[in-house]
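Listing S7. Sequence submitted for prediction.
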Amino acid sequence: MFAMCPDLPQDIAHIIFERVVEAGDGPSCAQVSKQWQSFVEPMIYRNIDLLDPYFFGDLLHRTVSDPQTSKPADFFAQHVKVLAISTRYRQPEVVQILRACSGARMVANWMGLGESDAMRELFSSPHFSPSRYSVSAVATELSSWPLEPGAHRMDFSLPIFQNLTHLEILCATGEGCRYWNSLSSLSNLTHLSVYHFYFFSPNFVEVTKKILRQCPKSLRILVNWMPSLAYGRGDWDKVHAINEGVVDPRAIIAYCNRIEPQTGHFEFALRRSFADRTRDWMGKTVGKDFWELAEEIVERRREWLDKSQA
């Protein structure tokens, strides 16, 4: 296949180039020849990380918006599988990138939901339908606080949500979940993660129950992330009932802090560094992602409860 190494079996060449791309040297290989470029580029664009967007993001936007590009019209829709976008990137460009990468199966959109007509139109299209999605509600929660009835609701009836099995919502307030009533319409949803940036309440258990009441029957896992504000205050006892499985057998607490709590059954909580959690959404997980770890905790706790009640 390759002029420089004609005797190299294709499957071995594929493995070699995958390792090269993973090491960050894919663009260099793509410049060797057109044959190598056609072989390597789908690997380069498989996982797109725009969390630090100012170099690659601009380059990608120029590529997807260039009418003279040599790439097939469906190149990005076909090959991009993971897409992570930062809050710092410009929304008009993001809309064009998302539209081009409509085949992505895992998307982290940390810009906020529906901040423009163009973004909402995109999310209303049946052609953009990932199976895993992390979305920020922070922008809408903070733009009109306190929330008025009917204002800034997260509209889970939009087509982008309909095929989700895994959903993460990043929120800044405790009142935001009051407006998630359409969450129950997501019949394919099995895993939900709620990441609280600043909010922590003595009624954290009630917040968890409120979220669960709005979830579809298909839900198997709820990962409820404690904000860093709670660490210094020693609020571990407030989530004891969640860790123990009393609130709901599907719900667990997760946290990013290095502190190892001594109380509150935190052997049944998930500790994941912020960097590892971010890598999970970038498609760069080493080992098991936080969803898999949550499943293991729920199963281990179920076994513990069965033995305790026997």
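Caption to Listing S7: primary sequence and predicted structure tokens for the chain studied. The two ends are 63 Å apart (CA to CA). Residues 142-151 have pLDDT under 50 and may be disordered.
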